[in-house]
Amino acid sequence: MDKKKKIYDILYVLAGSIIIALAITSILKPNGIITGGITGFSLVMERIFHINYTYMYYFMSLGVLILTYFTLGKREARKIVVFSLFFPLVLILFENLKFNLTEDDLFLASIYYGVMAGGGTGLILKGGFSSGGTDTIALVINRKLFRFMSLSTIIAVLDVSVIFLAAFVFDTRVALYALFTQVVAMKSVETVLFGFSSKMVKLEIISEKEAEIESFIMKQLRRGISKYNIVGGYTDLSRIKLVTICSFRESILVRDMIANLDPKAFVSVMPVSSVWGEGVGFDRLTSET
Q1: What is the mean pLDDT of residues 1-8?
Q2: Helix (H, G, I), strand (E, B) or coil at 169
Q3: CB 27 within 8 Å of CB 104
Q4: Average pLDDT, whole number, for the chain?
Q5: What percent of the chain has pLDDT over 90?
Q6: What is the distance between the alpha carbons of residues 272 and 256, in angstroms, rounded to a whole number?
Q7: Predicted pLDDT of residue 1
Q8: Which residues of 82-119 are buried (b: 16+ CB within 10 A; e: fewer)?
């Protein structure tokens, strides 16, 4: 079963890579729009240095892979190695085909690219891998430089920085479309992972490393935690269950952290349609009367 699951996981990554490459080469690039992350940065560098963005992306993705290996370790590097090696080759192949799916309609291009790129990224995450983009770079920055900053903040700063740079290299209109594209892509990833109804997720975590996991969630994600004493029905051992509510992107960061720290941990993920109370992304609890 494990072998079959690994095959399916790799197929998710390959399918996601093909969808993202198709979105970039047939929608993003032909229409002259931009996005965040390594993709957007490589397009900006192409405009500045006149070097094909596919080769820029290839070298940058290899750079992120090597950086991840030496700073975060072998386990973290394994999550991005398939995408880092396969995706740039598919990107170069599709770039040579030269076709445009949206016929120079920037609004439709922004929507279609966001849906396709977000869907492809969702498939990669669903397979338990990572795209090796701003999420991975943010993790390196957080652990090695700015531990006082939350991962979500670092990711947002990286993506916005690329879009801000694009406003100077391209124009303001392109940057505004890029922001719209990012929103559509994020919603598309959410839909692939958690369906149409959820914007937040509830995590229930049982692990021997509960103190480290609690510290990560509270100090780096800035999320609250509830703790419950539980007893395993099979082992009859006492454990502490951690419960937190966070965004889907933060849940992926938590998953990756736990996978590195305690692969034997038990984590249940439940979509949450709405949360009332104080907190980032929560609905403020107010009376209608």
Answers
A1: 69
A2: helix
A3: no
A4: 79
A5: 1
A6: 21
A7: 47
A8: bbbebbbebbbebbeeeeebbeeeeeebbbbbbbbbbb
Residue 65 tokens, joined: 């892979």
pLDDT at 65 over 70: yes
Residue whose C-alpha is closest to residue 279's, from 184, 190, 200: 200
Convert the chain into a string of H (helix), E (strand) and C (coil): CHHHHHHHHHHHHHHHHHHHHHHHHHHHCCCCCCCCHHHHHHHHHHHHHCCCHHHHHHHHHHHHHHHHHHHCCHHHHHHHHHHHHHHHHHHHHHHCCCCCCCCCCHHHHHHHHHHHHHHHHHHHHHCCCCCCCHHHHHHHHHHHCCCCCCHHHHHHHHHHHHHHHHHHHCCHHHHHHHHHHHHHHHHHHHHHHHCCCCCEEEEEEECCCHHHHHHHHHHHCCCCCEEEEEECCCCCCEEEEEEEEEEHHHHHHHHHHHHHHCCCCEEEEEEECCCECCCCCCECCCCCC
Higher pLDDT, 204 or 277: 204
Task: Round to whole Å and give the CA distance between 23 and 21.
Answer: 5
Cα–Cα distance measured from residue 96 to residue 10, given in angstroms and rounded to the nearest whole number: 25
User: What mean pLDDT do residues 70-94 have?
Assistant: 78
Q: Output the pLDDT for position 159.
A: 81
Structural Rg of the chain based on CA atoms: 20
Give the Cα separation of 170 and 43 in Å (integer).
10
- Whether the pLDDT of residue 277 is over 70: the answer is no
273 contacts: CB under 8 Å, gap ≥ 6: 197, 198, 199
pLDDT at residue 55 in the model: 83
Residue-wise pLDDT tens digits, 245-268 = 887 778 878 887 888 788 888 888
Structural domains in the chain, CATH included, are: 2-192 (no CATH), 200-272 (3.30.70.120)
